[in-house]
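Protein entry
_____________
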Amino acid sequence: MLPNTRLKLTALETSMHRRALIVLTLVLPAVLAGQSPPTPELPNAVMLQFIRFADIFGSRLVAAFDSIPAARYDYRPTPSQQTIGYVAQHLENANYSLCERLGVLKHPRTPKDSLSDTVKAQWPKDTLVARLEASLRFCDTAMERLGKLESPAVASTLLAFETDLAEHYSQISNYMRLLGMVPPSALPQRTRVAIALPAAALSPYVGVYELASGLELDVTLQHGALHIRSSIGSAAVQLWPESNNDFFAKDVDAQVTFVRDASGAVSGLVLHQYGRDRPARKRRS
């Protein structure tokens, strides 16, 4: 991206960025107990931060490309810059190239992959968005298989990958503003309406939920309201009910659904954020 296309973030974008950084409990590892195939080792606290920011910027990029009309995929601010379609296919290729360096996982190449960038840039919007999403899922899997982050070379590759996501999100956000559109990170959260539930209806949800080895969510009942806090350190955040089982946070764009077993007892929760649904099993009340 050329320097002359960089625009200053609005106050709203800056505010929402700050909120994303206090994601606390609400951005988690993708490796959860009970999922298959099993990973050789669960991520440590350092690795969780890379998983967290890949979720943030990956989901924003997909949302940005998905919101731009197909008719504008040939748009570029100046003749020397890349079109929106070109950026989309470039990101897909960069994701595979970088994430293959994280381990033994390899992306199987097809004849379409060997086409020139200018040809791929002309693919339909739906194709470009779907392929971008697939490349991000590939990177998710590669990161999940890393376990503990101990290699300087792997750390360098992760920094390159996530810096690339952030820089291209900045680029496509600028394009959107030049087209009169609002980037995903600057959009207000969807309005949600809280309902009133008695303490008796909330108390079954109190407990500790395991998201991954060494990472738990502690759900408590304080002054007639549910609060959630992660074991890796953060302030408790209130959960507001919008149904008997569905709750939302106001400080961050995240929702929690509590699930029950066949007997009706609360057995876990699912965290919804950045396009992900993360299950956690209830360990104790």
